[in-house]
């Protein structure tokens, strides 16, 4: 592993690569370079059943496996892997993880072409305003991967096999089949990249992990009308906790006020002025 992961309880603070937050007893957020994965499951339960949400950067499989073993025990594997979407930084370790665990992968049906080798994502858009990450984005991998029979389409009713308290919802914009996960009982939200808590286009802010709610990473977002609608949908849930694909978890009044502002002023603060997919 990059470093020993740290159990950090509220109040939530900046997290660096190789560190994590136990944001609740059964939600653990772990940062790999500049992207987050989540482990859903209570490590104190007898069953120790758990799910992995997203699969991080390439070459991070050993880190993820070690993290899971530290948290749930050495003879453990997830019941499944849930993908918010299939961009390279969210599926980077997936092939190696499936060789080790051999478990189902759940994704939205509109994301499956990118997970079965039938489609590639558009190249990163360097023409969007924002910072060095945007300028470098054409160099980021945009190819699909082929998971074969491992990948399963999520059920249309919003349920997730093995996670009865959670529901998924379609939050497109950043990608066609992007989803977010929500648990009503404590209003916990795993938002993926529908919105993030760091200005992902700016390498400086990414390195510092400066916390601020921002729209989806501009350089990979292809449907800005969909992205705006998705943010409004998530704001309407009034989440008390949000774990996003990039940046540190956020909760309470800070989350409520910043997410509402983003929803109400999306075109001003999130939609780029220029870009291949803006108009």
Structure report:
- With 279 residues, this protein is α/β, with parallel strands linked by helices.
- It has one domain (20-269): Ribonuclease Z/Hydroxyacylglutathione hydrolase-like (Metallo-beta-lactamase, Chain A, 4-Layer Sandwich), CATH 3.60.15.10.
- The chain is built from nine helices and twelve strands.
- The chain has helices at residues 61-72, 88-91, 94-101, 112-115, 132-136, 203-208, 224-236, 252-264, 266-269, and strands spanning 20-24, 27-32, 35-40, 51-53, 80-82, 105-107, 151-153, 166-170, 179-183, 188-192, 241-244, 250-251.
- The strands form two sheets. The protein has a seven-stranded mixed β-sheet, with no helix packed on it. Strands 8-9-10-11-12 form a five-stranded mixed β-sheet.
- Helix 7 (224-236) runs antiparallel to helix 8 (252-264).
- The longest helix has 13 residues, at 224-236.
- The protein is globular, with a radius of gyration of 17 Å.
- Mean pLDDT is 90; it is low at 1-15.
- This is MBL fold metallo-hydrolase.
- Counteracts the endogenous Pycsar antiviral defense system. Phosphodiesterase that enables metal-dependent hydrolysis of host cyclic nucleotide Pycsar defense signals such as cCMP and cUMP.
């Amino acid at each position: 592993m990059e470093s020993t992961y740290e159990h950090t309880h509220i109040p939530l603070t900046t997290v660096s690569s190789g560190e994590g937050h136990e944001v609740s007893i059964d939600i653990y957020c772990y940062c790999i370079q500049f992207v987050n994965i989540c482990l859903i499951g209570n490590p104190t339960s007898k069953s120790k059943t758990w799910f992995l949400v997203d699969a991080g950067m390439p070459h991070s499989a050993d880190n993820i496996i070690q993290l899971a073993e530290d948290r749930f025990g050495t003879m453990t594997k997830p019941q499944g892997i849930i993908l918010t979407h299939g961009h390279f930084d969210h599926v980077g370790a997936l092939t190696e993880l499936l060789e080790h665990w051999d478990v189902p992968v759940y994704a939205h049906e509109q994301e499956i072409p990118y997970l079965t080798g039938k489609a590639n994502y558009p190249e990163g858009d360097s023409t969007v305003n924002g910072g060095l990450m945007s300028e470098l984005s054409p160099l980021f991998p945009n190819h699909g991967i082929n998971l074969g029979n491992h990948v399963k389409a999520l059920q249309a009713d919003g349920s997730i096999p093995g996670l009865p308290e959670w529901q998924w919802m379609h939050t497109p914009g950043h990608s066609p089949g992007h989803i977010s996960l929500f648990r009503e009982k404590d209003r916990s939200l795993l938002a993926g990249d529908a919105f993030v808590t760091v200005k992902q286009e700016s390498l400086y802010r990414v390195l510092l992990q400066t916390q601020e709610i921002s729209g989806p990473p501009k350089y990979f977002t292809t449907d800005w009308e969909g992205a705006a609608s998705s943010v409004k949908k998530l704001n309407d849930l009034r989440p008390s906790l949000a774990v996003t694909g990039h940046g540190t978890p956020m909760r309470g009044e800070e989350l409520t006020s910043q997410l509402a502002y983003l929803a109400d002023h999306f075109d001003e603060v999130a939609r780029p002025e220029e870009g291949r997919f803006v108009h």
